[in-house]
From TrEMBL:
<comment type="subunit">
    <text>Homotetramer.</text>
</comment>
<dbReference type="InterPro" id="IPR018376">
    <property type="entry name" value="Enoyl-CoA_hyd/isom_CS"/>
</dbReference>
<comment type="similarity">
    <text>Belongs to the enoyl-CoA hydratase/isomerase family.</text>
</comment>
<dbReference type="InterPro" id="IPR001753">
    <property type="entry name" value="Enoyl-CoA_hydra/iso"/>
</dbReference>
<keyword id="KW-0456">Lyase</keyword>
<comment type="pathway">
    <text>Lipid metabolism; butanoate metabolism.</text>
</comment>
<dbReference type="InterPro" id="IPR029045">
    <property type="entry name" value="ClpP/crotonase-like_dom_sf"/>
</dbReference>
<dbReference type="GO" id="GO:0006635">
    <property type="term" value="P:fatty acid beta-oxidation"/>
</dbReference>
<dbReference type="InterPro" id="IPR014748">
    <property type="entry name" value="Enoyl-CoA_hydra_C"/>
</dbReference>
<protein>
    <recommendedName>
        <fullName>short-chain-enoyl-CoA hydratase</fullName>
        <ecNumber>4.2.1.150</ecNumber>
    </recommendedName>
</protein>
<dbReference type="GO" id="GO:0018812">
    <property type="term" value="F:3-hydroxyacyl-CoA dehydratase activity"/>
</dbReference>
<dbReference type="Pfam" id="PF00378">
    <property type="entry name" value="ECH_1"/>
</dbReference>
Amino acid sequence: MYENIKYEVKGNLGYLTINRPKALNALNTEVLSELADALKEIEADDAVKAVIVTGEGKAFVAGADIAQMSKLNAVEGRAMMQAGHKVMNTIDQMPKPFIAAVNGFALGGGCELAMACDIRIASSKAKFGQPEVGLGIIPGFCGTQRLSRLVGKGMAKYLIYSAEMINAEEAFRIGLVEKVVEPDALMEAAEKLANTIASKAPIAVAQAKIAINNGFDMDLKSASQLEVEATTVCFGSEDQKEGMAAFLEKRAPEWKNR
Ligand code: CAA
């Protein structure tokens, strides 16, 4: 069982909750290790079609654990950052959709966790930022890379160099989050989106994620070839036959995930 996170499956959805509310869900090495284990569970479970990531209490995640990091030398710091990268990259590369339901502070490693997810829905009370330079480090869970890819280089530099905290509306304006809702409506909005995605052909959703995420860092020619390969996987699936037959027969499709 996990001590610092909660992982539950309800229906087709996985719920991954960072659960250290007294430390505003700060990511220490124990949380990272539990997240790595939960991600293995998620990957192995075909019944889980989409995952909602959120935080317990008033924060989403207020960053990597500063108390723990304050004692680390360069070798140890590097190891912790690599553990963070592993978690973020696993989310990014797993062919299942992850939705961040950002309920409060998403700072430093918290903003990086939200950015590793496929889609971010924020409570209107959420706050975002990369405060690391004020602590003598830089974003270390791939924030220098994912933030610039999401909001552009100039805005990423503005946020990272200034360490400024922004509210949910500003995060929406710059493209850091895809939707902002009232705090009480957050989980409902995340579940509605997750259920909508879960109702689509899982192979198609997985191939769309692979094509978008892997293609983003390629030149257009290679990325377009990647899309051809991804569509070929879809055309080779039973679910492509089912999806198109269901459309023509005016009925709901029954996905087999093969
Ligand atoms: N690490 C460890 N503990 C943290 C923490 C963090 N990132 N963020 C908050 N906490 C702890 C506080 O130390 C405090 O603990 P105590 O009750 O034992 O004193 C508790 O959580 C509650 O926090 P506050 O009293 O500070 O709550 P607040 O509402 O007054 O302020 C806040 C909230 C503005 C988010 C403030 O807590 C804050 O600035 N936190 C740090 C944010 C930060 O700098 N994050 C980046 C970390 S570096 C990083 O993430 C590196 C990376 O890229 C991987």
